[in-house]
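Throughout our pipeline, every protein is held as a single compact record rather than as scattered files. The remainder of this section carries one protein's record, kept here as part of the documentation.

===
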Amino acid sequence: MIDIKLLRQDPGGVAAQLARRGFRMDVDWYVSQEAERRSLQTRLEDLRKHRNEGSRRVGELKALESPAEELRVQLEKLTHLDRELVDAEQAFRKLSAGLEAFCLTLPNLLDATVPEGMEEGANQELRRWGHVPDFAFKPRDHVELGEMIQGMDFSAASVITGARFVVLRGILARLQRALTAFMLDWHVREYGYEEIYVPHLVNRQSLTGTGQLPKFESDLFRVGPDVDWFLIPTAEVPVTNLARDHVFSGSELPKQWVAHTPCYRSEAGSYGKDLKGMIRQHQFEKVELVQITIPGESSQAHERLVGHAESVLVQLELPYRVMLLCAGDTGFASAKTYDLEVWLPSQKRYREISSCSNFRDFQARRLNARWRQDAKSKPDWVHTLNGSGLAVGRTLLALLENRQDESGKVSLPSCLQSYLGGIREIRGGVGREHPNG
């Protein structure tokens, strides 16, 4: 949530910043509602003051055993004040709720370094790593390779559930498990993340805290109608909510958490996009990185977080590039986002495999997540960050496509072979092991 003090002091300036995203804030409505809120607040203070004075006066009259008529008049005045006060409090609560609902629809303010632009084409490429394979044959896509390996079954998933699901069999099911285990182990061992296991169902307050609600409700799967729980769209939601209503000591920060979860998204608004294969599914796996930092350290933490995600791609020997997202392509809750995009030979283009964002205090204000240097210090908002390290399904398909040969054999990077009992290549559903392992 945007700093309410800043919004009240300079609504026009906030609106101008949000316009960079293409977001139109109704300044006139907000200014009029805020003026009414202040007027009601002043009226409430006056009514409470008069009521307290009236209560004292009634007490004095009773103590002095004043004439009954005088006491009756004062009691009537007090009753009238009580009614006015109840009405004013109800009006104030209703108006405040409306303003809060309005504020929850406002996206985060962007970092000054975020480039201008409204669409993907305005994103800035910062760097590339790895060798884009130059095949002497037409590369197969992951769907064809998966069928050749007899490990990727969309038809079975369609019967079980419907479109945009997959059944992985045999070596590909093992490969997904290996990728997940490698990513978790890598972040814990190399960068000191604490591994977290979290619920896959969250309540409305959790989703509101991280910014998925109210804006993205159509993209969520709700469990109900009698239970107001949702399947998680990303581990970011339950993991970041570990900080909700918590005051960290300075010595506790930064926090670095890593979690593997399935993710569930309705993909509302994506109809007709990536219908084939595993690029865009309703259920997929991710290893997610979440960091909680003090405000002055979040920018540096953001750069390190990107490096942590990049290192997984380096270990897997997958070519990728790093993109700084433009204003219009930056997510609702993010102040600044880097995307990691992996090369897909079948599409002859880079595709997103990780999105790493600095939310600053936007989520913290919604979550009431704070910190203080010591017991005598006043609590302040923490900064939150997250990124995928990585999206497991997209990593799997990138491995298949980038490491294939003309016969359909797929070689595996050395970092995964110990997770697969020494298997170093897959073909036709069979894993081929090291000669000595």
